[in-house]
Amino acid sequence: MSDTLHTLLTEDRSYEPTPEFRAQANVNDPEVYQRALSDPLDFWEGWARQLDWYEPWKKVLVWERPFAKWFVGGKINACHNCVDRHVARGLGDKVALIGEGEPNDVRSFTYAQVKDEVSRIANTLKSLGVSKGDRVCVYMPMIPELPMTMLACARIGAAHSVVFGGFSAESLHERINDAGAKVVVTADGGWRRGHVVELKRITDEALAKGCPTIEKVLVYERIGDATAYDKGHWDSSRDVRWSDVVPQQSVDCPCEPMDSEDLLYILYTSGSTGKPKGIMHSTGGYLTQTYATAQWVFDYKPDDVFWCTADCGWVTGHSYIVYGPMANGVTQVVYEGTPDTPDKDRFWRVIEKHGVTILYTAPTAIRTFMKWGDEYPDRCDLSSLRLLGSVGEPINPEAWVWYHETIGKQNCPIVDTWWQTETGAILISPLPGITSTKPGSATQPFPGIHAAVYNEIGDDVTPRHGALGFYNTAEGRQPDPNGREIGGILTIKEPWPSMLRGIWGDPERYYNVYWSRFNDAYFPGDGTKVDSDGYFWLLGRIDDVMLVSGHNISTMEVESALVDHVAVAEAAVIGKKHEIKGQGISAFVILRTGHTGSPELEKAIKDHVAMKIGAIARPDDLFFCAELPKTRSGKIMRRLLRDVAEGRALGDTTTLADPGVVANLKERYEHES
Ligand code: WT7
Question: What is the CATH number of domain 545-672?
Fold first, then answer.
């Protein structure tokens, strides 16, 4: 049995909501589950009605598997609901965004100020030729202008495609062209660990590789150092300084009424193949579910200060910085930099300084803080906190308990939220005023969500009525293709409002990836166990996707970056258990003749991957070998490499073309690393 599974199976601690928390919670009646179950469409419709619509929908759902349309015929604008609606109901003076820069500069915007600035940005985009239906690529640091630019796109009906500021020129180039973006919005740079990330220079590099659809580049001056422009390339027919155009624009910019099903954004995520998938989210259903889940899971109250530490380059920032929280009119912190700048107490300083009440962060960060030690949080006043959240990967019970005790002082419920870029919003999570939590379990599907466990052959084996769930194939428990034992396969059986509407430019891939595995349910790619209380214990990916610090990276993506290096003939990549990151990247590399392995070459190859994809994909370790374990049909058996890297006894090797290869590899690996 794997360690994780063992820990999870033996985890029996349970934490009930306190009577005080329960009493004040936005939802505290367990009956909501039954109500939503008996009529899910009515449940979602109730949430949609709380938003402003220009025209009501004619039908809540049209479902032609695998295509869903929600609130069909309704007309709505996401930016209006996140901004103007609050100003109109007298909340214009409420702070919307507290922008905490890494160098300690704070720039805050009220909802009224956000409305004005978003309108100016929107008018600027229009003046640069952007109109309804176009795509705008956003490549910015985590400053308030990033969410405001996203909202400006939504305001005029252009889809944003945000690319995380840590991605390389090559990744940016690929995403710009895939989306066919007309404009890139970027900045001269952003602050990260005391250094400037030169976003404009990287954008120039991306565009130099050829981006035929790009007409203009709008550049926000974050660093404000003219040399950032002068040293780099400045193409005056293409590049536009933010300060030259945005402040001059009118603050009048009507919101474009959009069809409920119109594209709100594209966001790229890694899949099992090398090519990232442009996940498409539409407007009405997405906004409804991000709004609903944010309100119930994070339990917002008018005075809350919410801090989601994700970057807007990931889906967490889209759904739980921009759309969910802002549709709820909450006050939030937007932090630019890293948790260790200038010191390892930066997160706790930010909480103290701004009185953060709700913190939403990732297990990888929590494990890092644990390792740094309690002295950092102990220096700061964290008494403002009342609720803690986790997202991105399974949280190990040890980290959960540390989070609960050291950060939450045993006084804050923890919401461990399971979802994906594709699901758009939280699907499995506690409701903090109702659910007793268990460390390591995301607990139960959100009301209205029908999650289930399937076995390999597609039977619904979700345990009911107290049966202990540990199911796999018809022949009994079996290892998954990656060699880990899993309880079963997570599926979602009914459509939900914020589900992806497809993959940009690749309709077949949408079906193949998510709907071909089982014919009657959505397949997210995660293994899960369900316990006798019906609680879900998510067990990680069952495909060739790694979860590195909570971010999807495909093994193939890294492999193709590796073989792109002149010295590399062949490569295989696996996700290896990593104390902090959840999974780290291990690369096995066969060199071309004429090249010999050396620490210098190892570094050069790792750097090459970081240059091709971004620092997040840099392999943690790299092992030179002469051969890779392959099946007779030539398929690399990654599960055996995982056995080697994680020091386990080798699994079944009978299908290998040459079982000697892996035995040899294991011996050398253990000897050399
Ligand atoms: C994958 C999706 C959701 C936003 C961040 C990641 C894993 C996510 C949890 C959780 C266990 C989790 C899953 C999922 N995951 N949250 N609470 N417990 N696993 O978005 O990059 O699309 O990754 O992250 O494996 O499939 P993403």
Answer: 3.30.300.30
